[in-house]
Write a structure and sequence with these properties.
The complex is a heterodimer of chains A (161) and B (171). Chain A has 161 residues and is of the alpha+beta class. Chain A has helices at residues 2-21, 23-27, 31-49, 55-78, 80-87, 101-106, 111-120, and strands at 91-95, 98-99, 129-134, 140-144. With 171 residues, chain B is of the alpha+beta class. Classes of the chains: A alpha+beta (161), B alpha+beta (171). The interface between A and B is medium-sized, with 18 and 19 residues.
């Protein structure tokens, strides 16, 4: 019984930690953040199983976490309100070519990171961007202003990556 | 002009097959049942009490009916005789049963321990009408299956009781 409770508590804790780390962290981790996650994983493993080294215990812990993941994804599909809580909401970083500095600070993203993402999308100038959005899963997507083209020469207005 | 190679999946792949959905749902239900079994203690550690009496000696033995490898499988023996146990309580367990467990640790420390054929006997010095002893055990990692044993409990006043117990050790 304890292993199910421990796995549940630690899953919720981990979910809280990853949400607190910020959206961008999920998609681009620094060396420190990567180390933190590795150490966290090790600590979590010890905390969930304690002295239980049985195969049944391991399968039970994994099954509990899988059930929580399934439940969260089901809830996120069913309710927009819950989806915002579970997955977070997109944040507009660039609007009509203007950078939203407050949003950048809140999401702990530097202007250099933003410019790098724009370059990855073939965007030479943020003035060409209608929207630059930090998506819930951590990607930055760009929508170009009407008539603008990226360096790839694509007429697309919906480039994500 | 290179030949056209469409990258779109086959038309049939666009529709989620009913059978696939059913299999996925069945898997989730199985997963939920398994976790529920774990949460309710069905997959161990689950304890069970057996009682018996003979010649004035009343004995209750609490043991793990279901446990898992490396988990607790201790046996607790509670003995009672009106008029006193005579100063000594003996608990005997088959060595074959104990072989599936590790960390055999009788508490309190026994006055004597002897191996008699397939039986391991612990003699405890006790006072009064009631005594409680514990044989600390852990299921050996990798052990699995049903382990059965007859626990023999005797006191110095001539009473002897045998109790059957069984422990399922899950892998």
């Amino acid at each position: 019984m304890e292993i199910v409770i421990r796995a549940s508590v630690l899953f919720l804790l981990l979910w809280g930690v990853t949400r607190a780390m910020g959206k961008r962290t999920l998609s681009e981790m620094s060396a420190f953040e990567l180390l933190l996650l590795v150490v966290l994983g090790d600590l979590i493993e010890s905390a969930v199983t304690l002295d239980d080294s049985s195969a049944t215990g391991a399968v039970l812990a994994v099954s509990t976490i899988v059930l929580w993941v399934l439940l969260f994804s089901w809830l996120a599909l069913r309710s927009r309100f819950l989806r915002r809580g579970i997955e977070g909401t997109p944040v507009v970083l660039v609007h009509d070519g203007r950078v939203n500095d407050a949003a950048l600070r809140r999401e702990r993203i530097s202007v250099d990171d933003l410019l790098g993402s724009a370059r990855e999308h073939g965007i030479a100038d943020l003035a060409d961007v209608a929207y630059g959005v930090l998506e819930a899963e951590g990607r930055i997507s760009f929508v170009l202003r009407e008539g603008s083209t990226n360096l790839d020469g694509g007429p697309d207005e919906h480039r994500t990556g | 002009m290179p030949p056209s190679t469409p990258t779109a999946p086959d038309g049939a792949a666009h529709t989620v097959r009913t059978r696939t959905v059913l299999v996925r749902r069945a898997a989730v239900v199985l997963l939920a049942v398994f976790v529920a079994a774990g949460a309710t203690g069905t997959l161990g550690v689950r304890r069970h009490e057996v009682r018996a009496a003979g010649a004035g000696l009343e004995v209750a033995v609490t043991h793990a009916s279901v446990t898992r490898g490396s988990m607790d499988a201790s046996i607790e023996v509670s003995a009672r005789r009106r008029g006193g146990l005579g100063g000594r309580l003996t608990v005997a367990l088959p060595a074959g049963y104990l072989g599936s467990f590790t960390g055999v640790d009788p508490v309190p420390a026994p006055a004597a321990e002897q191996v008699d054929g397939d039986l391991v006997r612990w003699h405890f010095a006790v006072t009064g009408e009631q005594a409680r002893v514990r044989i600390g055990l852990r299921a050996a990692p990798g052990a699995a299956g049903r382990q059965r044993a007859t626990v023999t409990v005797a006191d110095a006043a001539g009473g002897q009781v045998e109790l059957e117990l069984a422990t399922w050790v899950l892998p």
